[in-house]
């Protein structure tokens, strides 16, 4: 079963697309809204695919949040009135673009692409899981690396190369072979995997909390469970990062050892 959500300001476009999708078996509608949710952009649902209107305010920010480890990451298809809107879709690296009104044959092709992308994501997740297991086996001796120097990062951004001290990193999220470094004033994209980062970050200050997230422990404010039963970290900069089930015990052990200490960076 493939589940979808529609976020489009135009009610007529939403209802029309919903009617078209109702013809296909094994496709379920989770909702149709004029705008993203305030707290949870996907309105408390976990869709496999989201159809986004190209004229939604803050579209670029919304897509930047998609993929955040603290949020569910569906496949995105953009909807637009003009062919030129396809250029925006390409720039924002969404999976596909559909011209309104949506052509039936074109919609079928779009759903085929979405299924292929979902399968690709499942395959990548399996590869990541196996890679993690192998890395844990191979790096069993990492704890013996006493006296290791944990160096700053140099990250290329547009026409400059930026020095990023480890102390300035709030948290890091995986992004398909790259990693987003979330700092206090900006976000930088660096071509490095979380597996490699784990060996380069100081373990006294950084902790893996999710398959796709590493946090600076000094910015942790609290942990909390949401209404869906998943656990999240609240960070000092206001962001929330989801805690993976396999990492909960490690985080709990760390926090138990820091009872009475302030975790928030000065």
TrEMBL record:
PROSITE patterns the UniProt entry points to: HTH_LYTTR, RESPONSE_REGULATORY
Ranges where the HTH LytTR-type domain occurs: 153-257
Cited Gene3D superfamilies: 3.40.50.2300, LytTr DNA-binding domain
SUPFAM superfamilies according to UniProt: CheY-like
Positions of the Response regulatory domain: 3-115
InterPro entries tied to this protein: CheY-like_superfamily, LytR-like, LytTR_DNA-bd_dom, Sig_transdc_resp-reg_receiver
Signal peptide bounds: none
Gene Ontology molecular function terms on file: DNA binding; phosphorelay response regulator activity
Name the UniProt record assigns to this protein: Two-component system LytT family response regulator
Organism: Maricaulis maris
Lineage of producing organism: Bacteria, Pseudomonadati, Pseudomonadota, Alphaproteobacteria, Maricaulales
